[in-house]
Design goal:
about 250 residues, mainly alpha, 2 domains
Length: about 250
């Protein structure tokens, strides 16, 4: 119980030693995962798929527990508040992790597309510039954060280049429309938490206010939200056109 009562508070520094270590390890792990899935035995391919998927699922589930345990002994009310406002799996990175995990286990091509677009277009930003991470490698927060934000891009590469589940015609609009559906869910969740639960700082998907959003540089709310959504369509095109050509831009659902 001493671990739960005394979680380490060493601050995390962007582009500090532990961050560079994760970036290097992510590149190596991604290369190894792709190589094994392309050339390894069936047993090793299964191991890589299952390990990656389980890691992603555990990372998503760990955030509420870690957030609660970090604060509950000092201020139980604050612990509950932070869990409801920041830790439930209603960020796009969480959905990308779940999509990648299911795609890895079931070799699902459509979910692999979402994992590739959402993961490389969104989650990768958190790996390169993890502005929301507060604590360094001695804290469980650090492991959960990078298990997700490094795991999703690794899984995306493994799905596309390892398993060969490459984006297909119409991928840009499929990924974009499903992203709009995600934002609709995030907005509803935020409104329920704010107006029913009384959790005024809920901002899943960074959809309700620019005050706590890394995208606030794009303008005030709701301008930054519209600009972000439009920019992501361009990012999805950049990520997929080199793989499947101009067919990625077709309006094609099936």
């Amino acid at each position: 119980m001493s671990f739960l009562n005394n979680m380490d508070h060493t601050p995390f520094h962007i582009f500090g030693p532990s961050h560079w270590a994760v970036l290097a390890a992510s590149l190596i792990a991604g290369w190894c995962a792709v190589r094994i899935l392309r050339r390894g035995t069936e047993r090793w391919k299964l191991i890589v798929r299952v390990v990656l998927a389980v890691m992603l699922f555990l990372a998503v589930m760990a955030d509420p527990a870690i957030t609660y345990l970090r604060h509950v002994h000092e201020d139980p009310a604050l612990a509950r508040k932070l869990v409801h406002e920041t830790a439930w799996p209603f960020f796009l990175c969480d959905w990308a992790a779940i999509a990648c995990g299911i795609a890895l286990l079931g070799k699902n091509q459509r979910l692999a597309e979402l994992g590739w677009c959402w993961g490389l277009g969104g989650t990768l930003n958190g790996l390169i510039y993890p502005s929301s991470l507060s604590f360094d490698w001695k804290s469980p927060d650090w492991y959960a954060f990078f298990a997700e934000h490094a795991g999703v891009p690794i899984a995306g590469a493994a799905l596309v280049f390892g398993l060969g589940l490459r984006p297909q015609a119409g991928v840009v609009w499929r990924a974009w429309f499903w992203m709009l559906a995600y934002f609709a869910v995030a907005i509803v969740v935020n409104l329920l938490l704010i107006h029913v639960g009384g959790y005024q700082d809920a901002n899943y998907g960074f959809t309700c206010t620019s005050a706590y959003s890394p995208f606030g540089v794009l303008g005030p709310w709701p301008i930054y939200l519209v600009v972000k959504i439009l920019l992501l369509a361009v990012v999805f095109a950049i990520l997929t056109v080199p793989i499947c050509g101009r067919s990625a831009l077709r309006f094609q659902w099936g």
